[in-house]
Amino acid sequence: MTDCDRIEAALARHGLLLRGGFHPDAGETALAGGESAGTVLLVGNAGSGMWEAFSAQMPAGADPLDRWSGDVLGAAARQFGAEVALPSDGPPYRPFQQWAMRAEPVFPSPISILIHPVYGLWHGYRGALLFGRVLDLPDKDMSANPCDSCTARPCLATCPVGAFSGQGYDVQACRRHLRSGAGDYCLDGSCLARQACPVGRDYAYGAGQAAFHMAAFV
Predict the structure, then answer these.
(1) 79: helix, coil or strand?
(2) Which residues of 162-188 are buried (b: 16+ CB within 10 A; e: fewer)?
(3) Three-state DSSP class for 52?
(4) What are the structural domain ranges in the chain?
(5) Does the pLDDT at position 175 exceed 80?
(6) CA-CA distance, 196 to 42, in Å (whole number)?
(7) Average pLDDT over residues 112-127
(8) CB within 8 A of 48, min separation 6: which ones?
């Protein structure tokens, strides 16, 4: 069993997935002591597995998912001799989207969320484990971007306020709609543009998970 196999098994107990990794160039990614990281492993979620674990242990107070993720990844880091990086850390913020695209086959979608060939838009990154040493990594999946073969682009035609143009995302128009009362369906069932994507529908978030993420966004 490799180091990555053991890390993957430890994360699975919390409904988390090892989302691939990469070896950064020398001097590219610094650890706390100033030395260069030898390996970056991305940790995330897809579908409902993480939600089941998190909702059963949800801490009280602000930013519960960030704090839970930090606790889980912190325990894994201590166990395997790593440091933790979280998307909420900073400034300066770590380049998680760039890291993700180096670690596994995810691509910018027309609505800005990274799309995965299997999970579609129903996934996320909870953090990363940074190692000083170089770990053996599994071969990277080279699957193609599913958006390249999608001619209908239903994600761009579904938002009731046209927040997605294909060239950008009008965040404020989206938030105004959600706060107006007219956006209750989006709040309760998740973003309509996200739901319109035909990829990964088996991994779509359930009502509780969707409502939690939408409330946090608003």
Answers:
(1) helix
(2) ebbeeeebeeeebeebbeeeebeebbe
(3) helix
(4) 3-131, 146-217
(5) yes
(6) 27
(7) 97
(8) 15, 205, 206, 209
